[in-house]
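Weekly modeling sync, notes
Attendees: S.R. (lead), two postdocs, one rotation student

Agenda item 3: backlog of single-chain predictions. S.R. asked that every request posted to the team notebook include the full sequence so nobody has to chase files. The rotation student volunteered to paste the first one in as an example of the format we agreed on. Action items at the bottom.

Example entry:
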Amino acid sequence: MKKITIAAAVAAIAIAATAYTSPYYALHQIKTAVAARDAEALASHVDFPALRDSVKTQLEANMASSIAAVAGSDNPFAALGQSIAGAMLGKMVDAMVSPAGVVALVNKSAVSPQAEADDGASAEGKQTKADYAAGYAGLNTFIVRAKEGDKEGGLVLQRHGIWGWKLSGIELAPAVAGR
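Predicted structure, as returned to the notebook:
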């Protein structure tokens, strides 16, 4: 009976440990797919509808605040401009948030070693490692951010099942979001 209890405790600890480390493994798989420029492998780690909604929501909020700041709330053309821009924005985000578009976006993020190598280190023949911080922001949310102060924003992974994680959002940097 004691052996069964010990085996059950070891199994429970192993399951908890693998569940806790699963987003790190998913992040490793995403980095490997990006490094290989394998859009199909990367697409298997992306929740495209959630990612599109995340980007659209942030860009639409930024657009609404910038139109209100420039045109004011009493301008009748502001609403017309916002509706036209919103329709165009939706189509652009749908086109950008595709497997090939996600590869391009992630290549410029904290996850990618190419993001730093493009800054001139590759000319010197040095291989730089991406410098990022990753951690839980809740039980089902895992966020990856660059450690450097001038690079803000982040990648948001959401839990899909017990061990599965998918890229479900991008926190746009203030320069991109216009804040």
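Discussion: group reviewed the output briefly. DSSP finds seven helices and four strands in the chain.
Action items: rotation student to repeat for the remaining queue; S.R. to check formatting next week.
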